[in-house]
Amino acid sequence: MDHQDLDQAAIAAAARALEAGALVAFPTETVYGLGADAENPAAVAAIYAAKGRPQDHPVIVHLAPEAPLDYWAADIPQQARALADAFWPGPLTLILKRAANIPDAVSGGQDTVGLRCPAHPVALALLRAFKGGRGGVAAPSANKFGAVSPTLAQHVRDEFGPDGTVAMVLDGGASQVGIESTIVDLSRLATHGPVLLRPGHISAEAIAAVIDQLPSAPDAAAPRASGTLDSHYAPHTPVAMQDSAQLRLTLAELAAAGRKVALIHYSAMPPAHAALCLPATPDGFAHALYAALRAMDGQGADLILVEAPPQEGAWLGVNDRLRRAAHGSTGIVHGLLNSSAPGKPA
Ligand code: TXA
Ligand code: MG
Known about the structure:
Elements: H1 8-19, E1 24-26, E2 33-37, H2 41-51, E3 60-62, H3 69-72, E4 73-74, H4 78-87, E5 92-98, H5 104-107, E6 112-116, H6 121-129, E7 137-138, H7 153-160, E8 168-169, E9 182-185, H8 189-192, E10 195-198, H9 204-211, E11 239-242, H10 244-256, E12 261-265, E13 274-277, H11 282-297, E14 303-307, H12 316-325, H13 332-337
Parallel strand pairs: 1-8, 3-6, 5-9, 11-14, 12-13, 12-14
Antiparallel strand pairs: 1-2, 2-7, 3-7, 4-5, 5-6, 9-10
Helix pairs in contact: 1-6
Bound molecules: threonylcarbamoyladenylate and magnesium ion.
């Protein structure tokens, strides 16, 4: 389809499928979501089953811009309304006290709910068509639990296949932002202030400019968020991150040892088994990151080596995702250098 022209028939069919309790994958500006009717516990349970996700992880409820917040959340602070006014539709999720009618399946048994209005024409059209715009679509990222989030419809098809688990995949082209929404917890405002549960395209500073308070880093009692597990967003191939100078040395050493490296970089680098050069800006890098991890995962390499991005604030979301993708790969470079490569004499 032409991504500029909304396919109204496909959107109507997707809305009817959601209303009937089926799973529908749809594009958002961050990543693709795997959606179900948030008020249908069996449909929400089907998301967990499809993803292989633990039952106690809450899912975000996606709303049309006109949907009444009070139907979904209780005790809504004025800061939440201010942030929704400033950033919705957009890549910001608000954690609020949940209203009584939110099924346990959506909140993972917690007393809060995550709400977001996405800024993608296909997502907005779907949310407006579903239950006449008054429904909520529960949707985690449309990937298996712990895997890299999808930023193309093809990524979703690769992840779930044609077995009918996912009734429809709406194609809205490449997700523009490329990493998941910023999550701010406002459910414990009186005692903890605003808390940044997951960094993203909308920065803590941009949030502070609206509510006059800088969100703090999560404490031990902060609500659980699966995207905040140490290991997440991980391809099958091990991932390591190194700064530019170290990475040049490592590339030479691994090549000499007969190891295959798939390289994701943004400055000039020597050749590798496979390589993708990403834009050297936080937004450009984030936009391309997940597709790059998927592509490099398919290169039959021993290792995906990523040039560590700068540490400045604007790169926080990208650094957060890369750190989780690389989690558990400590010592991997050392291990590859100190054991023999297949087909190479020891
Ligand atoms: O950009 C996004 O947020 C994408 C698109 C599809 O909207 N969705 C997404 O969903 O990233 P998911 O499930 O992959 O990540 C949502 C995160 C999880 O870490 C989940 O635990 C957290 O939001 N979350 C949802 N509801 C919550 C709640 N009530 N309290 C704390 N964390 C919550
Ligand atoms: Mg996810």
